[in-house]
Amino acid sequence: MSALDLARGQFALTTIFHILWPILTISLSAYLCVVESLWVRTGNIVWYRHARFWSKLLLLNFTVGVVTGIPLEFQFGTNWARFSQYAGQFFGNILGFEGAMAFMLEAGFFGIVMFGWGRVSKGVHLFATTMVALGSSISVFWIMVANSWLQTPAGVSVVDGKLAVTDYVSAIFNPDMPWGVSHMWFAALETGFVVVAGVSAYYMLKRRNSDFFLHSFKLALVLLAIVAPIQIWLGDGSGYDVFATQPAKGAAIEGHWHTNAPGTGADWSLLAWPNQAKQANDWSLEVPGMLSMLATHSPHGQVKGLTDFAVADQPPMLPLLYYAFRVMAGVGFLLMGLAFWTSYAVYKSRRQPDALLAQRKLLLAWVLAIPLPYIAVECGWIVREVGRQPWVVYGLMRTKDAVSNVPASSVSASIVMFAMFFVVLAASFFIFARKWLKQGPDLTLVPPADPKRADPNSTAIGY
């Protein structure tokens, strides 16, 4: 394999592994904001114990996320030096903004969130939790700004063979940015709420601390009932934007080969097997005229086919791209349906809490649903990144021109090293997560005494 193939493989490996952790950090920190706010507002000790319980999972995710994110960014200098030289004036600045504005904010307050109980007032602790959630959300913003700019570059011009920024506002708020940022942020929220609901359902299924976990299950369910439909709407808007700004990617996602004639609708293939060598689908199950509605929101909207583009400009690995999109969309609809179905079941059992515990198949469905949002996020990134190929900066720089001049053997060695390191990290996480799950919540915990009232001479933070 060439250095280019290996560099792409290494970046795929590190990205696919890294993204597993930040999405839960983003959502759990937001969830903890809600939980702590309920405690501060109501004084109900249950919410305090929930904050202490779920913060342990946040600590595990945050730690692994930080460790796996560092080598990911270093690759821009090691494996993709030509890209960094060409686009670094904007892309490098944005990654710097993410580190300075987001990670530092998140990391700076994280110690207070984990170890500030009893050392700061509960108002200050809630503020620290909010800053961690804000920092993680700002991180989503800057990372997706950088990635969206690769999809739809704007605000730059070529000067002496490099991209120079001519309009920072246009570059940051490029056409893909609103959809990319919002779709990713809601995907992260949905992931965390499913994890909370799934873990809660696990305890309820085992009849362990059922009353305690009924609180977190219902709260996660309420949040999911809000987030899941919004995510579906954002997915539709994001797809509409793709067909407008990256028509080759849109056609590849839908296995659409030939542009529909004026006055006719483009057929949508529900299932197919795209064959790039034949420039056609081997087989296809189609819905007449539906693709025009999905891609243009018009019954006779014109949708460009892949044959309108040179083969060299078409995305590769079409079956992977085609089915990754369908898995992502299918999971989104499945989770929304599960959330609504369960909401109805909770409503019916509102006067009989034990009735919900008796629905073991429903609780089991939530336990089995835990991996689904992760799968959807990974598939979404496959669609986003593979669909952009063969460009690293869409329409400006091809991926083959972005790779560093390094021996393939060096890249191979680093892939092996990263793979071994990731196995150790994953194993460590699951060992500690299993211990956390087995131990369960500490129902003897009581909120620490107000540090000011406990010691009149205290100089505790927040007073």
Automatic annotation (TrEMBL):
One Pfam match: Cyt_bd_oxida_I
Membrane topology: Multi-pass membrane protein
GO CC terms: cytochrome complex; plasma membrane
Location(s), subcellular: Cell inner membrane; Cell membrane
Gene Ontology MF terms in the entry: electron transfer activity; heme binding; metal ion binding; oxidoreductase activity, acting on diphenols and related substances as donors, oxygen as acceptor
TM region(s), chain numbering: 20-41, 53-74, 94-117, 124-145, 184-205, 212-234, 320-341, 362-383, 411-433
Keywords: Cell membrane, Electron transport, Heme, Iron, Membrane, Metal-binding, Transmembrane, Transmembrane helix, Transport
Annotated GO biological process: aerobic electron transport chain
Stated family: Belongs to the cytochrome ubiquinol oxidase subunit 1 family.
Protein name: Cytochrome ubiquinol oxidase subunit I
Species for this entry: Dyella choica
